[in-house]
Amino acid sequence: MSLPKEYRYSKEHEWVKVEGDKVRIGITEFAQDELGDIVFVELPEVGDELDLDEPFGSVESVKTVSELYAPVSGKIVEINEELEDSPELVNESPFEKAWMVVVELSDESQLDDLMDADEYQKMIDAE
């Protein structure tokens, strides 16, 4: 499994790609692999506020339903509407096509609390 080095990662298996004052968020390859075949993705609305470590949506697989936890706080400025009709993108392309939301950060310092790719790899190796 390859992890994009420029991304940041949460202990809840979300990835964060910094894009200026915004971030793009999705779930990691490890997370989608653990969940199995994704059949439904529930996302918030544009304009909703994310609060650090609070649930903001869910991913349903053939095995289970898993909450998505906000790795940062901020306002949602875009959602990936493709996932509504094509939830399987989460399995096929977790880092490229299956991003879930774009968030305008309210506190950039929260990024410092996320793991880099090497730290995240160590965490999943230990699981």
UniProtKB/TrEMBL annotation:
Keywords attached to this entry: Lipoyl
Protein's GO biological process: glycine decarboxylation via glycine cleavage system; protein lipoylation
UniProt cofactor(s): (R)-lipoate
Modified residue annotations for N6-lipoyllysine: K63
Co-factor: note: Binds 1 lipoyl cofactor covalently.
Gene3D superfamilies (alphabetical): 2.40.50.100
CDD domains: GCS_H (cd06848)
Annotated function: The glycine cleavage system catalyzes the degradation of glycine. The H protein shuttles the methylamine group of glycine from the P protein to the T protein. Is also involved in protein lipoylation via its role as an octanoyl/lipoyl carrier protein intermediate.
Family: Belongs to the GcvH family.
Subunit structure, interactors included: The glycine cleavage system is composed of four proteins: P, T, L and H.
PANTHER family with a match to the protein in the record: GLYCINE CLEAVAGE SYSTEM H PROTEIN, GLYCINE CLEAVAGE SYSTEM H PROTEIN-RELATED
NCBIfam families: gcvH, PRK01202.1
Descriptive protein name: Glycine cleavage system H protein
